[in-house]
Amino acid sequence: MKKGIKKVRNIVTSPSTLVLICCTLYSQHGLAQSVAEKNLVAKTAPELRTEHSVINAPKQDNAILGLWVNGVDLQQEAFILNINQQRYIECSILQQGFVDISQLSALNQDNIQYCLIDNPSFSSEIDAQRQLFKLNIPAQYMLKQELAAKQRFIPDMPNLGGFINYNVYYQNGDYNKQINASTDLNLFWKNMLFNSSHLFRKNNDDHHNKSQSSNRLNTSLSFEFPEQMTTLKLGDNVSNYTGLNQSFYFGGLSFGTNFSRRPNFTYWNTPSVQGSALTQSTVDLMINGSQAYNAKVNPGQYNIDSNIGFSGLGDAQIIVKDILGNTTVQNISVFVDQRLLRPGLTDYNFSAGKLRYNYAYEDNDYRDWFGSGYLRRGITASTTLGITAEYSKKLESAGLMWSQYLYKLGLLEVNSAYSHADEAGLEGYTVNTEFKRNTQNYSVGLRSQYYSADFRMLGLDDYSSHSYLPARENQIYVSKNQIPYLNNLSLSYIERKFREESNSEDQKLFNLSTSRSLSNNLFGSFGISYDAESNDRASVDLRLSYNFDNNKQSLNLNQHDDDETNLQFNQYSEGNTGFDYSIGASRSHDEYSGNLSTRFKTNAGDLNLQYLQTDDQKYYSASYMGSLVWLGNRFDLSKYISNSFALVRVDGTPNVDIYSNGSYIGKTNKNGEIFSYNLYGYSENSVIFDDSQISIEDSFAHSSRSIMPINQRGYIIDFPMSNTANHNITFKFIDQNQQPLESGSMVNIEGIAQGKYPINSQNLVTVYGLNPQSYSIKVQTSNQTCSSQFTLEPDIAKDEIVVLTCQ
């Protein structure tokens, strides 16, 4: 009688395996029964797979062998079950090898699923000498993977707070004297921001004419919806520029996407890397010789969305290297441009309200009601389409936008709009075409736009008057990099042709420029410009800039033709506090002048002083920019808030150095607090403190924090400290039979970074730096995981060994 088990490397203790062995021996006495099939719905795929129930299997050879899949040792043994001349392997083991078992037929025995591996696409081999079963499975039977470079775009919600930006400007001279001041009030909480800004002006000219005014610039309430990447703004607004219209002020509501203003979100058509791997592999995306993306993939088919910041046309290589050392290289052409949206992504804005005129001079000059809509959507990675429409009582307009990548050539854009001015009875149109090709070594672009005589845009004061728009505009530019001796060279031509009734003059401007580094610290540029319409002589510009070794001083020389010269020396200070100044002299048409400007930078604001002296005139000015900030229970004077900011609290610890995004902010005050005002909205920001300045009696969980703020919001960043003494505790873990756990078992203290400790040869383990509190502990032995609880009391004996039962 043949043995039911052909090769056995280890004693099998699994009950399911013993049942299979018994069934195999029992089948030798002729008690074989039929196999019934039924369908089993797979969780990982929509299709159905077949499942068998074995009552009694016919006489076959079974085996327990080490399993290799596609040349990779899975480091475990598999039971090879033979039924009706077909081989089966336990499905759970194949899943560990990243096999998509939903595509395989299966049978069920003693609640264990076995997958059929007899498949025309599979190949297998039994290595009797090494007791291995080698199975080769094509990539299409592996689990599919959708990978993407991580994009965190959900920001942290701010605390309740506010700030008032202010800017005071004073100027005095021989012919004019003026005082200006502006305020910008902002109140925020969670996703809400209220804004109100004002401008105050007072002027005196040399004829003793005085004027004084106070104007409201903006009053608005906006709501950010980070998950949807949209913004709702009520009150004073500015319309979106689409390329087919002009931006205008209005009062009303605006709702639309805001992802194009988020530096952390890649919304354009980044290349996708598709392929397959038989084993675990590393995928590198190289563009123009530089690594743009790197990822590790499991066996199977993969699709990687790279989210790279590359722009232009380039040659890419996809390099796949598996764990066996095999390498494959695929060459592709890629094109990335921010005008091409990611497929399926929609950029839109809808606005309604009243048009506002005389901004900054009239508070309430709101006139015609209007409504407008704008939408662009990525159709494919190569095509983006869009529409725009505007309506008011006096003017209606509509437009179409098309952005198309031409394979291996570049980006072509065609935009067109139609307008109808009701009261004036004018109908017009505009057409815009643009082509650009950007590569690693050169760039080429052509743009042309035509406006008909009766085309009008929403927001004009008088739709019946002659348009200020030109009849046509043309632009051509060419630039080349990596040119010997010159480094780079750029040539551009701009033409504007106006109609006869317009007061504007035609232009035909030629520009030629080059720039390069002349030495380690010396940079130079040279340019020639010529207006062919006015027939003036060509003008020449020469610029030289020298940076001293410490990069804190620079000397700049500008020469325009032979009648204008400027020489300037600049002193810079690193960080957010310090003293900067600039001193220079200039000549213009035999008139000489000198200038001096200084900036005093403090954490409470910046003071700027300037003085200008010419042959017969002198001017001097002063300005101060800062902010009054409220956050938590703190009011403070701060720099002008243009980004986001934070109140950093190091739990009552004074004189601790704080750094934000690598820049030194200052020391904490007597309460352990300081404001950090240079956080960037929708970007990862790091705030850290110098932990070497913390007392040895104090302990802390971390010395750095990462935060992604919403723009112009405030956050409280706490670094809690503990003044309780740390303890080094020695544990002895025993099981329920009062036996010590084996040496080498790993003890994991939950809630402690790097909190894994091995049990030593004396069955003891020492954990350092514990504070008086409760801890959850898990211990991983060679064959099980057990848990225990421990509460550290402050008065614990110094050398006491703590015995814990792990269960």
Structural commentary:
The chain is 2% helix and 57% strand. With 807 residues, the protein is mostly beta strands. Among the domains are: 129 residues, PapC, N-terminal domain (Ubiquitin-like (UB roll)); 65 residues, Immunoglobulin-like; 63 residues; 76 residues, Immunoglobulin-like; 79 residues, Carboxypeptidase-like, regulatory domain (Immunoglobulin-like), CATH 2.60.40.1120. It has a 24-stranded antiparallel barrel. A 9-stranded mixed beta sheet has the order 1-2-6-7-5-4-3-9-8. A 4-stranded antiparallel beta sheet has the order 19-18-21-22, with no helix packed on it. The chain starts with 14 loop residues before the first helix and ends with a strand. The relative contact order is 0.06.
What's the total count of β strands?
55
- Classified by CATH, the class of one domain is Alpha Beta
From the N-terminal CA to the C-terminal CA, the straight-line distance is 47 Å
Oligomer: single chain
Task: Specify the number of helices.
Answer: 2
- Unreliable spans are 1-59
| CATH architectural group of one domain | Roll
Strand content: over 45%
